[in-house]
Amino acid sequence: MRISCVPLxxxxxxxxxxxxxxxxxxxxxxxAVIALAGVAWLRQSPYWPGITLFSESSRVENFxxxxxxxxxRPIASAGPVWAFARDPRPLxxxxxxxxxxxxxxxxxxxxxxxxxxxxxxxxITPEDDRQGADAAAPLTSWSMAKSVISALIGIALEEGHIAxxxxxxxxxxxxLDGTPYGAVPIEDALTMSSGIAFDEDYARxxxxxxxxxxxxxxxxxxxxxxLAGLPSARPPGTFNAYISSDTMALGLVLxxxxxxxxxxxxxxxxxxxxxxxxxxxxxxxxRGQEFALCCLNATLRDYARFGRLYLEGGARxxxxxxxxxxxxxxxxxxxxxxxxxxxxxxGWTFGYGYNWWIPEDPQGDFLAIGVWGQFIHVDPxxxxxxxxxSADPAFxxxxxxxxxxxxxxxxxxxxxx
Length: 417
Hints:
Blueprint: H1 6-44, H2 48-51, H3 59-63, E1 72-75, E2 85-86, E3 94-97, E4 100-103, H4 104-110, E5 113-120, E6 123-129, E7 139-140, H5 145-158, H6 186-190, H7 208-218, H8 223-228, H9 244-258, H10 262-271, E8 280-283, E9 296-298, H11 300-311, E10 315-316, E11 319-320, H12 324-330, E12 351-352, E13 357-358, E14 366-370, E15 374-379, E16 384-390, H13 395-415
Parallel strand pairs: 2-6
Antiparallel strand pairs: 1-8, 3-4, 5-6, 5-16, 7-9, 8-9, 10-11, 12-13, 14-15, 15-16
Helix pairs in contact: 5-9, 5-10
């Protein structure tokens, strides 16, 4: 009698398949549980704000609570406050841009404004705290901090801590000796003309600017080691290419030259003397080194005081805090590659001074600018300072329009009796 073994083999295969499916299903369940547990742990960990820093649902809250995202060094206010008067005035309803009249209120909403403060002749006109912020909220500066670093470099030069702006960076940071950054003159780093190759593309996950925070925060790399590994792309002082590593290098110079952490030097030379009303902080890496390229956290009014200081030529009520000649040099670039407008030797149409921006169609005004729509706009001709903080995902595209809106605001408040 012949007995076929095919049904038996098929049965064994079917049973084996069922066992494999059960094992796979249980494996997926276990992996899902582990993943959920991992997410739950991350949400309770100090890393969660950093992971969600720029997410649409979190960035407004994160930008006014940066102490939850990064470690920070405190900056105490001290001495009598440089007071603002009050002179309420309406904002203009519209402004002109790209040949059109545009609605200002709609622009403020579209650019996800978190705070707007306008000061005219030392008096607050509008003050608009938005999206849950209030006057005491410490809003992050992002790259507006670069203009603060510039002021501190000017003070350090005046005090003799820095001998010359033409000194190479390695003069003060010997660990960079023999590297491309070590050979860059301080002045060329101040004007974003170092010639160092650094990718500032925020939209690319693996760009140098995004990896900078991963390397210093998650991987524990020192800022000096990060800078030492960057190659040169062109000779210094020939092309204006905005790269945040230049200001990181300036922070190292400032700390080495003064013997103080950046936040401490700021507190003693600028924050206290200019009469701030609130404590601030400066975000640091895991080693406690300030991120000089960004991440000062302060109130709208204290940012306005910094703008007012530059409006007054570096002086507060007759007391010189930032050298007057430094202020003039900072906002009046002379080199051809730093001029505003279409410029083959620049990567942007705004001009650039010592870490201050000069907009197109120059009218004597200048700006500190940070990503995601942070601005201090200073208009000496109209005696106006405007501070705007935001969470604007289209920040680069909106910079020229923001200047148009600021100029309309300045004209309107200055024209009112």
